[in-house]
Amino acid sequence: MSARLSQEVRVHLDKARESAILAVEIYNKPATTFRSGGFVVLMCIAWTALFHAVFFNRHVKPFYRQLKHKRRYLMIDGDYKAWELKECLAEYFGTNQPPERINVTFFIGLRNKIEHRSMPELDIRIFGECQAFLLNFEELMFQEFGTKYAINESLALALQFSHLRDRQQEHAIAKLHRPLAKDIDSYIKTFRSSLTIEQLYDLRFSYKVFLFPKVANHRGQEELAVEFVKFDPSKVESEYYKHLVSLIKPTVTQVANQGMLKPSMVAAAVLPVVKDVLGDDAKFDAASHHARACYYYKIRPRRGEGDPMKTDVRYCQYDEPNKSYLYTEAWVTFLKEELKKPGQYERIFKKGSS
Fold first, then answer.
1. Which residues pair with 316 in a beta bridge?
2. Which ranges of the chain does DSSP label H, i.e. alpha helix?
3. Do residues 169 and 162 lie in contact, with contact meaning Cβ atoms separated by under 8 Å?
């Protein structure tokens, strides 16, 4: 990256930065009823401006060219027709489909619906995607232009009113947000259902977190009431994450295992798919086949090896009091889809594998 940015690049960076800050300001205002809509529209502007800054910095003009005269740019009302956000994604990512691109694509479709009709409240439904939308924006700005244009120092964590919400409170809140336009509701459900399990649960597509009380063990930790820890999957084995997990672990192990499945229940749910693909003689039992599938996809350690708590929490959790593993519905869905693939059953359960 050049040490000195051109005027064109700096103008677009300032626009991107200010649009993002305005988006967060609107979202965090308690009295604002159009918060999700305003946030999405302004963040789409911010992303577009950021991409334009990136392209200008690479000496690429983000404008459409005329069909007949490829060396000339298309003009509309005296201005060059600039690439919209969808075109910017195609130019920046090419054929790659990382979670960041999928997240922005989700909001492009949502923005188009917001702009053409009245906007119901969406906060509860898309909070995770909104948070990822913002964090991915900040990450791209940092990667392309460094810390000088970072916006995290300008933002504060929004305060929350509720100390604890029980199921009755959650039901009441959901009832208030029920009048979600059918076409918007359908768009959200259809988009999410089109993703793979890995894409849907990737934090770069939807950033969802739990808030735990922070206990200060010594002076110096008291000063920061809230510490934001950005999760990096590539560093999941680091000592820092192990320390955080050890702090959270006592709380996690006290949660009831509602909705979790035993190996026999997973096997019973997956077996019909296996028979449908391979014939009635095919097998998928809990003791052998399911265990080997767990090892093949590395969702839990082998029995007696390593820390049993180190699981892929999307699919598997360790029940410490009972010294056993429990599995999620997402694991059943994932296994079914995998075992439908030609040759996948043989790859997982080939001779000599264990």
1. 327
2. 7-27, 35-57, 85-93, 99-115, 123-145, 167-176, 182-193, 197-201, 239-253, 263-278, 291-296, 329-339, 344-348
3. yes
291 contacts: CB under 8 Å, gap ≥ 6: 263
Q: Is 148 helix (H, G, I), strand (E, B) or coil?
A: helix
What distance in Å separates the CA atoms of residue 223 and residue 344, rounded to the nearest whole number?
Answer: 53
Alpha-carbon span 52 to 8, nearest angstrom: 9
CA distances from 273 to 233, 260, 279, 297, 353 (A): 31, 20, 9, 18, 22
Q: Are 184 and 120 in contact (CB under 8 A)?
A: yes
The pTM of the full predicted model, rounded to 2 decimals, is 0.60
pLDDT for 267:
92
CA distance 342 to 123: 41
Taking each helix axis from N to C end, the angle separating 99-115 and 182-193, rounded to the nearest 10 degrees, works out to 170
In 3D space, the residue among 337, 13, 321 whose CA is nearest the CA of residue 193 turns out to be 337
Per-residue pLDDT tens for 255-284?
455 678 899 999 999 999 999 999 989 999
- Terminal-residue alpha carbon distance, the chain: 49
Q: What is the per-residue pLDDT for 147?
A: 78
Give the C-alpha distances (Å, rounded to integers) separating 155 from 27, 256, 272: 12, 36, 51
Whether the pLDDT of residue 217 is over 60: the answer is: no
Mean residue pLDDT of the chain comes to: 79
Q: How far apart are CA 213 and CA 225, in angstroms?
A: 9
16 and 47 Cβ atoms separated by less than 8 Å? yes
Predicted local distance difference test score (pLDDT) of residue 28 = 85
